[in-house]
Amino acid sequence: MIKEFKDFISKGNVVDLAVAVIIGAAFGKIVTAFTDGILMPFLGAIGGKKNFDEYLFELNGSEIKWGTVLSATVNFLIVAFVLFLIVKAVNKAQSLGKKTVEEAEAEETAEVILLQKIYEELRTQNAAS
Length: 129
Description:
CATH architecture of the largest domain: Orthogonal Bundle
Number of domains: 2
Order of helices and strands: HHEEHH
CATH superfamily of the largest domain: Large-conductance mechanosensitive channel, MscL, domain 1
Strand content: under 5%
Shape: elongated
Distance between the termini: 77 Å
Helix content: over 70%
């Protein structure tokens, strides 16, 4: 079991994953700062409040802070959209150099047809000589 763990750790994927988690956490903090410091106060000011977190309603003496939940939802959507764009770009970059099987077969077929035409032309020229 220790050997398996050692093999798992020695692969580069664990380090890549750790770096991705750290960068993701830092990016999440930036998005939270943007949302809490700029976007939501701006939206709150439009609605007449100092901050969007002040949007709430009371129910039997309890405060339901729907503005805070909406702020967290906006944070999530921003992070999710940026991750979507990153994954889409990585997938596109990986697929640029790869040909599909159909493309490779079509290319091979075109080459074979061209070679057959050349062969027939040469054969015709040699027969005429």
